[in-house]
């Protein structure tokens, strides 16, 4: 599939602000499963945009606005071609769970076995993980069992949480949005010693286009495989991947600081449409 993605974020401030510094993580990843053809980021007020790769290899655009302003807008446009990713059969059993300790020897997995700001691996989470994966003897089958558990345990409800809601609170209330489903699954996987990381991106469906979050789990001898606990499936070519991290805190679409009023209102508009081939 070939997608055209537009993403506009607008901050309206209750008074004049200045020295507004921001980091933007909206550039789709250029990876085997998808090819980035075009990306453009503009700001209002106009600012010089610079770039760098963060610790996890994600592309970050950053800019500063020094002049006083009461409105800040970022507009990104991208064209990306996605390909059907390699999928593991649901009945596959590639690696015994007894070998999951091998993942801890991989330097790229260390951070994704530890608790993070919005996930935990405390004893209660460990007990829940063992209960959810009871009877499973394969790493992949255990990960699928944890995904099904999260999907059955949580109810999807818009606006039921916010971007700073930890997984413990999500589990207590039994509802959340896609990032909460991802955080809960990540915490359970890590408690089972399965490396798991947070993925930010977009999902295009017939009824809606939106930012989305899912997970990737590490299978020894195979590598990272994506699972979406919100929709209880492996992501396909309707998913556009942007960035990976320990949890949402590593990959927010926009993060910044400024001087001025505390009063502000944010508006986000995301549109994803099929892009005809030239």
Describe this structure in words.
Helices cover 17% and strands 41% of the residues. The protein is an alpha+beta fold and 278 residues long. The chain has two domains: 2-83 and 252-274, Immunoglobulin-like (Sandwich), CATH 2.60.40.2250; 97-235, C8orf32 fold (Roll). The strands form three sheets. Strands 1, 2, 3, 4, 5, 12 and 13 form a seven-stranded antiparallel sheet that branches. Strands 10-9-8-11 form a four-stranded antiparallel sheet, covered by helices on one side. It has a two-stranded parallel sheet with strand order 6-7. Helix 1 packs across helix 4 and helix 2 (139-153) crosses helix 4. The chain starts with a strand and ends with a strand. 39% of the residues are buried. The mean pLDDT is 95.
Question: In brief, what are we looking at here?
Answer:
This protein is about 15% helix and about 40% strand. With about 280 residues, the protein is α+β, with helices and mostly antiparallel strands.
Helix content: 10-25%
Query: What would CATH call the class of the largest domain?
Result: Alpha Beta
Strand and helix order: EEEEEHHEHEHEEEEEE
Count of alpha/pi helices:
4
Strand content: 35-45%
- DSSP strand tally: 13
**For the CA atoms, what is the radius of gyration?**
19 Å
Biggest sheet: strands, sense, closure? Answer: 7 strands, antiparallel
């Amino acid at each position: 599939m070939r997608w055209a993605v537009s993403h506009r974020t607008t901050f309206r401030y209750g008074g004049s602000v200045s020295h507004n510094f921001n980091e933007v993580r909206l550039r789709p990843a250029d990876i085997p499963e998808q090819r980035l053809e075009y990306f453009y980021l503009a700001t209002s007020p106009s600012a010089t945009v610079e770039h760098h790769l963060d610790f996890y290899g994600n592309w970050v655009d950053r800019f500063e606005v020094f002049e006083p302003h009461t409105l800040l807008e970022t507009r990104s446009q991208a064209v990306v071609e996605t390909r059907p990713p390699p999928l593991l059969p649901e009945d596959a059993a590639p690696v015994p769970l007894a070998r999951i300790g091998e993942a801890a020897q991989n330097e790229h997995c260390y951070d994704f076995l530890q608790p993070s700001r919005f996930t935990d691996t405390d004893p209660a989470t460990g007990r829940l993980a063992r209960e959810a994966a009871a009877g499973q003897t394969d790493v992949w089958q255990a990960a699928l069992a944890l995904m099904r558990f999260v999907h059955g345990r949580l109810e999807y409800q818009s606006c039921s949480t916010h971007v700073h809601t930890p997984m413990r609170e999500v589990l207590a209330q039994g509802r959340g949005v896609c990032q909460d489903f991802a955080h809960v699954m990540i915490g359970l996987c890590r408690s089972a010693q399965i490396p798991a990381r947070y993925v930010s991106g977009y999902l295009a469906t017939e009824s809606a286009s939106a930012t989305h979050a899912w997970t990737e789990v590490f299978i020894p001898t195979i590598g990272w495989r994506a699972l979406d606990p919100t929709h209880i499936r492996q992501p396909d070519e309707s998913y556009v991947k942007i960035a990976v991290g320990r949890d949402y805190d590593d990959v927010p679409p926009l993060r910044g600081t400024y001087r001025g009023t505390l009063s502000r209102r944010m508006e986000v508009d995301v549109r994803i449409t099929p892009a005809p081939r030239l």
